Amino acid sequence: MIRKIRIRNFKSLRDVSVTLEPVTVLIGRSGTGKSNFVQALRFLRDYLTKPDQAVQAWGGWPRLLCATHPEDRGRLSFHVEFDLPSLEGTCAYELQLEFQMMRPQPRVTFSGESLKFGNRVLFAQTGKNWTQEPGLVELPSPGRAVLGLLYGIQEVSIAHTVLTEGVGSHDFGGDVLTRGRHAQGAETGLSDDASNYLTVLGAIARDLGSSGPMREIEAALRRLNATVTTVQLADQASRVRVGHQVGAEKVLPFDISQESEGF
Question: What pLDDT score does 116 carry?
């Protein structure tokens, strides 16, 4: 999981550091940056996947850079500390972009990138120069984000997967579980708006070799409602039904639309 993240000059976030626990709740008045903190994680994920497309998809740099920066130039940066699955140790990844507020478009240039695993620097670059070369015979050109281009180094590969496919940044609408139409495709997991939840849940349910994820979902729901027994797809995987214990030996199934919005 992500342990700590520092964000500088992303939207309304001038310089914010947050230490994360298994459950972290952000509380504050409207407009104080709660959504922007979550969106910063989503933007970093998208940028490390396809940088140019990510910037355009987010509406361009004017919508991404901090509009209240006191000077006409600054640095957009992300520092993320996280665990690596199957490896003992913590990674620290940093990405830095320099910007200059110009009209009509800001000028944004790559400034630096680094990845540490424990006390070991796996690679680091500043501007267009390597300050710590990765242990590869053939190196990609510095001066751009290369986390996803360093093939053959296990820790780097896993770190890239964690920060791209391993980051879910979801914004669930209140009616997401009761909409009539749902997006298909679960190759990259649950979509940001959860519109493909039926497909994802179906993939989990059909994985007979691993019942763990479904049991974890049911256990989490039992913490909200102790009567929950099962979560199952029904009607040719077009809806979800939740079983509730009634008395000692009987179960009453409810359609997901009959549950509370919080549930």
Answer: 97
Q: Could you tell me which of 71, 68, 41, 6 has the C-alpha nearest to residue 168?
A: 41
Distance of CA 147 to the CA centre of its chain: 16
- Beta-strand runs (E) in the chain: 2-10, 13-19, 73-83, 90-100, 107-117, 120-126, 129-132, 228-234, 239-246, 250-255
Residue-wise pLDDT tens digits, 24-36: 889 989 888 999 9
- Whether residues 49 and 74 share a domain: the answer is yes
On whether both 55 and 107 belong to a single domain, the answer is yes
Q: 203 and 114, same structural domain?
A: no
Per-residue confidence (pLDDT) for residue 174, from 0 to 100: 73
The parts of the chain modelled with pLDDT lower than 50 are none
Residue 86 has a CB neighbour count (10 Å cut-off) of: 7
130 and 249, same domain (yes or no): no
- 252 lies in which domain range? 170-263
CB 98 within 8 A of CB 108: yes
What is the 3-class SS of 31-77, one letter each residue?
A: CCCHHHHHHHHHHHHHHHHCHHHHHHHCCCHHHCECCCCCCCEEEEE
* 52 and 178, same domain (yes or no): no
Total domains in the fold of the chain: 2
Q: Which of 235, 222, 227 is nearest to 252 (CA)?
A: 227
CB 97 within 8 A of CB 108: yes
pLDDT reported for residue 180: 56
Rounded to whole angstroms, the Cα distance separating 97 from 74 reads 9
**The domain that contains 93 carries what CATH number?**
3.40.50
